[in-house]
């Protein structure tokens, strides 16, 4: 249930019998030949598909994240960490004030991981009710990562692992081969300018594509793992 | 051209011959019987339709805005003003660093208006290139407001003026009559709790709906006015 | 009753029987041939005259506001919006903690308008008592604006509408004609440097002066409208 | 030369031949039987009198300072330190951008002293021109303090030392005796609630008044010392 | 070379021929029977031993980190993430301004990991010189983790892996058995109050101690890995 | 009792019968020929020696303070005031939440004095229990300053007064004469670049050294005065 496909009365009715909600967070940043919205599109879609049979509402994806190392590729946006943690704080505060007690932040972008620090701080602020917040990076959660690794261990930014029918864009022909793998020690420490020089097309390594059948297997694993989180990923209370 | 329907190379190519971009900003908040995403959906859609024939890229809508007076209606989100201005600053900084020189912030929510103060400050920060930023609240820009007023002067939050085929939600029957008009002096000064008591269904007044033909006339005016802004709304330099 | 003409015991005595207070906010910025303090002087004076017969205390004017577009004219000061909202928050917090429950922020400067966003947020923060805060830009409130418009529709920054005996300065001869009108679409989007080039003397348009009789009529309307606000501008509770 | 008695052209003309300016900072807080504006009124007045023969412009006093320990006395305002340093930063930035190179912050309130830390930081930020900023608490500068000590060593908050013709308020009869002296170790560590209990009338100790002749001697010392600062208080460059 | 065992002239001399520096960061937080300073002591010590033969200076450890989940155990301190990132920014800025170009942040506490987000942002801020900053959590770097895993896979907070001669405290007898292992999904999502209830002695699981011989092997691996980082962990330029 | 020589259970046991704690704060900054850690080392050491017989716990020193005027001397660190006050706020909040009710901040660096403003604000924030916080700059507290003045009135930064066996560093020969005294009016207003030019070795004036016997007398006075503070420096409640 997308929040944008609901009115407030429907959300109010839902809160009479459940207290879970999903906040997908993504990024607007270069993904090589793929959509600049890849991380946002996938985080929202995996959330919606996972939550649908459970009837759990899914907020619109926060489309902007932290990607300071990609800002030399036009169209890439990046929030400062000081900004991002305040956005997250505000959204969590709103949800908590309305009666949501189990919040799943489904993340589609590695650079957003530090916000987990804010979440750990947030759950410890004094408030009337205990509110659980789990931070779940869907694309490298254990079962999804395992499903992908069975196909190919090389699955870096902009590679086949992000290449779904719904992240491709019109007018872009995707190469058939592989991009050279940029070592993580380099990728983690490069500036935006260095990154653009190191990766002329924005792909950090690995094959550019796989068959739709393979991709569906990975996707199904991702959806299933988010759904399992929504069903069983909470502390007993 | 939605940025999410593009990859970075396409944006880079665009920047070779143009320097305009649209950033739609909305809100996730109660709109009576209509979608909680009304302000976001309309801001993004009016931007995309206006920009399409011009080839100007449109960023994904920032779906969260400032609506502290609606947070008692479940599903409504609100960023603090201190947060919101930093989000805007970061996005403008990214765009400026990539060569965009004329940025249209197309706004769909009245509560976001104070960010215009940040924009006036931002354009005055020292930077290498002059970057123009116009803040345009599409729904009450002169020509759009005039088109709407010809039908009905009463057009408050949640009323017919926001009731488009693309802001209605499944499972919600919209009343045929009118909601009593909440005086602006009350609406502007009420707290979230008072607001919910004053407006049990969230509509602040006026008829709930008009014919699709009428709505199309208003919509066309809105699209045309945003397009005119993109074409002629810039200072000569 | 100016707070600066009172000691704390007198304010404490007042709070035994009333809970209203006025906080005037202005700006220190160029006003063409007129005083750099025009907006501050007028906001404080209109507040004091309006409040006097009611016995409502008036704080000293906050003399610095948001005017980033005027900082190229020496003597103009500007606070960042991030600073200004914290100043306002602190002052409101102090007043609320002391028992004031109806606070009128009487504003004399257009650039300060975004602080209304903070006020709407502030009244929604949880606190023990409901505190009302109205934001009133005295110079363009309906009745005052109407009184002025009857004389002349052109009444821009630095024009006759701000030219009172108490905003003129020694040693400055004021022209008798009119300044060319700078279109709002230009004034709203110009940088400080552009503004100074566009308006060599700082007046944004219209006649430089009118007779003292005319000015008194406008002034009386402003005082009356602030007084009416203090008497009737509050929500019933 | 008060900035509020000038227009921008006069300040621009001044900057052709001088680069000094005075920013008085005060506080709005209880001073026993005296005006709630005592610290602000004195800081501004001592600045104006000192600067007058030199032709140095004096900004309007910043009327709000840091006085968290007095907020239980109605009418007392207090900015948080995080707010206050940003206000100071903004004002200094504006002055520096306009060509002022020697800025005297003339302070009338002990609680504002921590802003000196911001000033030391500010002068070290990289900028094109060296800008000097001196922070001068006029009331306890060496010569003024010595002039006062010759009369009476006990000169605490709200006592005779702040009792000038221009800090008394109508309707308040000032006692003739002395208030008991609150030890500094207590005054410095008391909360606002404790402070109000410890000092029922707000005076922290010493005689309530002295003759106008004595007061004039102290005042003259204060004015002379600020003037000396404006003339000789700068580093050679 | 500890910075605290040096004067500034010695650091200045060092900068004539090298540009590396180590900033150890730790935490003051409960470690079961072990010192509240465990993470800080180890981060500083491993840095000093690793840097010693290279002559690279080591700053004093930042003893306070982010540990909101442990604050119910007395003596545990926690900085908010918004604070911590500003501390890191300031320290990096100082180092960069003095000519350090390769900065190793050697971290001893898992909760500090989000600061890596600030570091990625910081290296992308415009500055005159490229400054590399590597963030290295010494205790779970690949080779150190492998050395530890050879002994025992269970090595949670407060267990044998942190139990060195230099983290034990006088007067505390350490149990010989094992603490029950708290699942990571629980530990990552528990509040401070829940954490204290879940782990009565503060150990999150595994054996409390191993022989000094075993510990030395782990320690040597940690020192060697930090030294390798200082020698080879930089991007070529 | 150093907190780093304790585990949390020992601190918990202490809190059963006492509620005092010491937080030493220092600086990492040039001290001429002496250790860059002089202010931190002395603040921590004087705290530990003073607290030892009382059994009061002493936190690890906060080694970084505010010293923007020394950053041109390599190895000197400086936090911005906006950062420093948040660090202090966080530490005080943690201590208060754990039951500490009397906190002594023992300061070793003049530039940190503005944090006293935060402390006065902090004690006035609403909280369940009254928490006292005293800010004590040990090196210029009355009795210690008097002990030092008996030897020599000239005792500026980097001079004999900071030259203890435990602040000297290996490999640095300390001159036998005196450094010229930099006037306070200069030292307080110089930028970091000017400071380095004015004081080539970093000493701001006075003899470089005195006998260990003399130094012990000063030291003993400092320890005694901190101990007296811990014993008697609190308001009765």
From TrEMBL, chains A, B, C, D, E, F:
Transmembrane segments: none annotated. It comes from the Bacteria. Keywords: Hydrolase, Metal-binding, Zinc. Gene3D superfamilies: Creatininase. GO terms for biological process: riboflavin biosynthetic process. One of its GO terms (molecular function) is metal ion binding. It holds the Pfam family Creatininase. Its cofactor is Zn(2+). Belongs to the creatininase superfamily. This is Amidase. The lineage of its organism: Bacteria, Bacillati, Actinomycetota, Actinomycetes, Streptosporangiales.
């Amino acid at each position: 249930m997308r929040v944008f496909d609901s009115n407030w009365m429907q959300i109010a009715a839902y809160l009479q019998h459940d207290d879970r909600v999903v906040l997908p967070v993504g990024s607007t940043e270069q993904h090589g030949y793929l959509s600049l919205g890849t991380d946002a599109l996938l985080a929202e879609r995996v959330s919606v598909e996972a939550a649908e049979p459970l009837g759990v509402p899914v907020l619109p994806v926060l489309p902007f994240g932290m990607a300071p190392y990609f800002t030399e590729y036009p169209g890439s946006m990046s929030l400062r960490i000081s900004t991002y943690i305040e956005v997250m704080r505000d959204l969590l505060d709103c949800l908590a004030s309305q009666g949501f007690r189990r919040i799943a932040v489904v993340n589609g972008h590695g650079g957003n991981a530090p916000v987990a620090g804010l979440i750990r701080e947030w759950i410890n602020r004094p408030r009337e009710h205990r509110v659980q917040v789990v931070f779940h990076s869907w694309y490298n959660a254990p079962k999804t990562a395992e499903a992908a690794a069975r196909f190919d261990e090389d699955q870096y930014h902009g590679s086949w692992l992000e290449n779904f029918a719904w992240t491709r864009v019109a007018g872009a022909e995707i190469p058939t081969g592989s991009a050279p793998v940029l070592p993580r020690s380099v990728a983690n420490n490069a500036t935006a300018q260095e990154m653009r020089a190191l990766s002329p097309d924005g792909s950090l390594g690995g094959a550019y594509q796989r068959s739709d059948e393979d991709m569906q297997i990975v996707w199904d694993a991702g959806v299933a793992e988010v759904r399992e989180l929504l069903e069983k990923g909470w502390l007993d209370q």
